[in-house]
Amino acid sequence: MDIETNPFTGVAYSARYRNILETRKALSAFQQMNRFLAVYNKNQIVIIVGETGCGKTTQIPQIIAYSDLPHLRGKIIGCTQPRRVAAMSVAQRVAEEMDVKLGKQVGYSIRFEDVTDPKTTFLKYMTDGLLLREAMTDPELRKYSTIVLDEAHERTLSTDILMSLLKTLVQRRKDLKIVIMSATLDATKFQKYFSTVDGVQGALPVPILKIRGRTHPVEVFYTAEPEPDYFEAAIRTALSIHRAEGPGDILIFQGRLALSSAYPFTRHSLPNNSNACSSRHLAPPMGRSLGRSLSAPTSPKPV
Ligand SMILES: Nc1ncnc2c1ncn2[C@@H]1O[C@H](COP(=O)(O)OP(=O)(O)O)[C@@H](O)[C@H]1O
Ligand SMILES: [Mg+2]
Is residue 86 part of a domain? Predict the structure, then answer.
């Protein structure tokens, strides 16, 4: 990838590409590219486990594209996502990372919106439901050379059904590769499922590749006493982090209703001249209802 010309467009890479490439080099999935390729090239099905943020969704399909060059064979790599917003935003990001146009070489397909070009797209992010629909019209999924099932640990109905369809399909299509990606360590049940053929466990080798390394350092703090009100405690903790720490973002995992009521609560708990934590800076991350602009990562906290 550290070359002059983009193999997918034949055009010289832009300065922006080189900039993003430097950021990508810090991702564990990028650093472990050769480990992944060694396992991927030797096996028809591979399971990848790596913590959130290590680069599975953005890097692995790209690494496959650079290694397989599917566009030379008129094939495509498909990568499923349980959520529409994820399919859209990750396709946009990967198009930028690869220095190509969204909807040309890299695209996405969700229900009622197909941003791909049948002639040029070779990497497609899509909802798992959409791939399931495609499998109904073409059970052989002929146009795909590799199918990546992402976020398998979420166990959505569509991904689960796809796993069973793909398990039988790989017996018929020996040229098709499957990559199952999960953020939790407990991927052995996927391994057991795929490696069992005709009731014989281990009949098909299905390795688990663990992407090592932490994306962000994690420290765990516990409260000394049980908290009677989780919501109140979460807001109190967020406000004290806001006051004590430098610029950054705070992510709270709470119910949707609780988060909505956090707006007035935090407004009244902060002095007027507090360094810019207003309701404007509180974003309830309700993934399904977010538009494209809101689903992009937040910028550094304004001061
Ligand atoms: N739209 C984006 N803009 C900027 N950086 C992004 C974007 N999407 C992802 N990233 C960066 O890429 C990294 C890897 O993300 P991702 O491939 O989604 O990881 P994983 O799938 O393992 O959780 C993230 O840590 C983030 O820093
Ligand atoms: Mg991911």
Answer: yes
The residue-averaged pLDDT of 189-211 equals 92
- CA-nearest of 169, 142, 163 to 151 is 163
Domain co-membership, 184 together with 263: no
Are residues 238 and 207 part of one domain? Answer: no
Give how many domains the chain has, as a whole number.
Answer: 2
pLDDT greater than 80 at residue 190 = yes
pTM, rounded to two decimals: 0.80
- Average pLDDT in the 108-130 region? 96
Q: How far is CA 19 from the centre of its chain?
A: 21
| Ligand 1 pocket, residue 61 CB under 6 Å | no
Which ligand neighbours the alpha carbon of 94 most closely?
1
Tens digits of residue pLDDT in 253-301: 776 556 666 655 565 566 554 555 555 566 655 544 445 554 555 555 4
Q: Is 209 helix (H, G, I), strand (E, B) or coil?
A: strand
> Could you give the CA distance from residue 126 to residue 81 in angstroms, rounded to a whole number?
6
- Tell me, yes or no, whether 136 and 94 share the same domain: yes
Q: Pick from 21, 58, 62, 150 the residue to mutate for probing ligand 1's pocket: most ligand atoms within 8 Å of its CB.
A: 58
Residue whose C-alpha is closest to residue 275's, from 228, 230, 243: 243
Residue 89: other Cβ atoms inside 10 A? 21
**Range of the structural domain that residue 252 is part of:** 230-295
Query: The CATH number of the domain where 104 resides is what?
Result: 3.40.50.300
**Per the domain annotation, does 267 fall within a domain?**
yes
Average pLDDT of the chain to the nearest whole number = 87
- Element at 260 (helix H, strand E): helix 256-260
